[in-house]
Design a protein that fits this description.
Distance between the termini: 40 Å
Order of helices and strands: EEEEEEEEEEE
Number of strands: 11
Radius of gyration: 13 Å
Shape: globular
Strand content: over 45%
Low-confidence stretches: none
Length: about 120
């Protein structure tokens, strides 16, 4: 059973930065990976995904501020978040995704990491 561990969240002020790390116990090689966010009262949604070749895509709300990356040798995925806004507050999760199935999660969910952005 794969275990996914997210880390790096915290409490920051608007305009500051954070870097999240995803560390799954299963190899990410050849798999599309994604970061999800679940804001207060909202459903969990994909905000960025990265293909096995490193091609990345973002939702409009984070485009230009967030950068997703992966290191297959280290089996880690990252989310660099700059110019954070209060609306970025939420629990952030990572997972392998099935791009052929609306980017549905392929692995069990981890605990997530809380990001809180204050004004």
């Amino acid at each position: 059973q794969v275990v996914v561990v997210e880390s790096g969240g915290g409490l920051v002020r608007a305009g500051e930065s954070l870097t999240l790390t995803c560390a799954p116990t299963r190899r990410m090689f050849g798999i599309t990976m994604a970061w999800f966010r679940q804001g207060p009262g909202n459903q969990r949604e994909v905000i960025a995904h990265i293909d096995s070749d490193g091609s990345a895509n973002y939702v409009d709300s984070v485009k230009g501020r967030f950068t997703i990356s992966r290191n297959n040798n280290m089996n880690r995925m990252y989310l660099q978040m700059n110019s954070l806004k209060t609306e970025d507050t939420g629990v952030y999760y990572c997972n392998a995704v099935a791009e052929w199935d609306a980017f549905s999660a392929r692995w069990p969910w981890g605990q997530g990491t809380q990001v809180t952005v204050s004004s």
